[in-house]
Specification:
It is a single chain. By secondary structure, the chain is mostly helical. The chain folds into 2 domains: 67 residues, no CATH class; 59 residues, no CATH class. 59% of the residues lie in helices and 0% in strands. The protein has 8 helices and no strands. It comes from Noccaea caerulescens. This is Pentatricopeptide repeat-containing protein, chloroplastic. GO terms for molecular function: mRNA binding. Keywords: Repeat.
Length: 152
């Protein structure tokens, strides 16, 4: 039986479409309003609406904005790891915060070993380096799978 959300769609501001999709937006009132809506999302459908609006307006090209929507997609009570991975893949150059968020989401999820693979991807595919926030999530993943050697 299908379950439908009773949440109302969020009211998104109207933005002109940028001619250059790689052009970051300026931090104006409309951008702040769109970002404030992320914190008020109550389900994944609303988050997807905001994500689409951010892509359309170019706001998603801003690293802070992209990281914010990604962290909600990965760690909120209505998180969807599949959707979060799609959002992560759209981030042009994920920063350490985004990588750590993905590692944390997997470490807390049903497949904690996957967080180790994400960490290895971080080392080999990005120009980001682990920081003091990376390792607690990796240790948690190792503890979840009861692997002392993996934790070392």
């Amino acid at each position: 039986m299908a379950s439908f959300s009773t949440a109302q769609p969020l009211s998104l501001p109207r933005h002109p479409t940028f001619s250059n999709p790689n052009q970051p937006t300026t931090n104006n009132e409309r951008s702040r309003h769109t970002l404030s809506l992320i914190d008020r999302c109550s389900d994944i459908r609303q988050l997807k609406q905001i994500h689409a609006q951010m892509i359309r307006t170019g706001l998603f090209n801003d690293p802070f904005s992209a990281s914010k929507i990604f962290s909600i997609a990965a760690l909120s009570p209505f998180a969807s790891l599949d959707y979060a991975c799609k959002v992560f893949d759209q981030i042009p150059q994920p920063n350490s915060f985004s990588w750590n968020t993905l590692i944390r989401a997997y470490a807390s999820g049903p497949d904690p070993v996957r967080s180790i693979w994400v960490f290895l991807d971080m080392l080999s595919e990005s120009q980001c380096y682990p920081n003091k926030y990376t390792f607690p999530f990796l240790i948690k993943a190792a503890a979840e799978v009861s692997s002392l050697s993996l934790g070392r």
